[in-house]
Amino acid sequence: MDQVFKQTTSAALKSRYDYCAGCGHGIAVRLVAEVIDELGLRGQTVGVLGVGCYSTNPVTFNFDCQFALHGRAPAMATAVKRLLPDRLVFTMQGDGDLAAIGTTEIVHAATRGERFTVLMLNNSNFGETGGHMAPTTVIGQRTPSTPNGRDPEIHGYPTRITEMLALLDGAKYVARVALDKPANIMRAKGAIKKAFEIQLSGQGFSMVEVLTACPSGWRLMPVESLKWMSEVQMKTYPIGELKVAAS
């Protein structure tokens, strides 16, 4: 594992933790690093980061990373993968970055069957900017912009972007996982590894949606957030493999 994470003599960087207490993003970052380490691909990996709480990840990862404009990570990943087809290329994006600002980019990348992997961290709100409503905010969920709860008559319904992308012919592997308990965390790691392997085999587009807790945005304690994820969020976003194309 140590080889995947950057080594630094800076005490400030050694002690820093970029996420709020109870946030699941750190677990997701750990899983990605573990998979890349197990595949032995640190020197062949390029990560493309969207705009969100996870944008500090290049400080952690010891492999090439690029920043993209808000929602444009799939466009940049398309260019990187086409120019460097032997690389493992993935995007890491939030639900707002991917399912709101970047909807056009992700739909057309999947339609074309671009051979990179998308990891969408879904915490059902715009966590970085105060927790307001995102396309993935569930019905009844209270946010600063939906203080009485999301009302479908006013705000529309949650966007199940993963189900949408699974319908496209270019998408070869699509899954949704959750980071609410150890068993599901291990399943999440397996799905990320499988998505990477689908990419490396040249089959086409792969995606894993990762349900992750946002205690700050949800106004809950960390343990309560895990319970809310299991009992509320997963009713709208059930976990499992949505599409596994035959090789």
Number of continuous helical runs: 10
Low-confidence stretches: 5-15
What is the top-level CATH class?
Answer: Alpha Beta
CATH architecture: 3-Layer(aba) Sandwich
CATH superfamily, called what?
Thiamin diphosphate (ThDP)-binding fold, Pyr/PP domains
- Would you tell me the structural class of the helices and strands? alpha/beta
SSE pattern: HHEEHEHHEHHEHEHHE
How does this model look, in words?
With 247 residues, this protein is an alpha/beta fold. The chain has a single domain (11-244), classed as Rossmann fold, CATH 3.40.50. Helix content is 39%, strand content 17%. Strands 2-1-3-4-6-5-7 form a 7-stranded mixed β-sheet, sandwiched between helices.
Write the layout of secondary structure elements.
Elements: H1 11-15, H2 25-39, E1 45-49, E2 64-67, H3 73-83, E3 88-94, H4 95-101, H5 103-112, E4 117-122, H6 152-155, H7 161-166, E5 171-178, H8 182-200, E6 205-211, H9 215-218, H10 222-236, E7 240-244
Helix pairs in contact: 2-8, 4-5
What keywords describe this structure?
247 residues, alpha/beta, Rossmann fold, seven-stranded mixed sheet, 7 strands
Q: Could you give a quick summary of the protein structure above?
A:
With 247 residues, the chain is α/β, with parallel strands linked by helices. The chain is 39% helix and 17% strand. It has ten helices and seven strands.
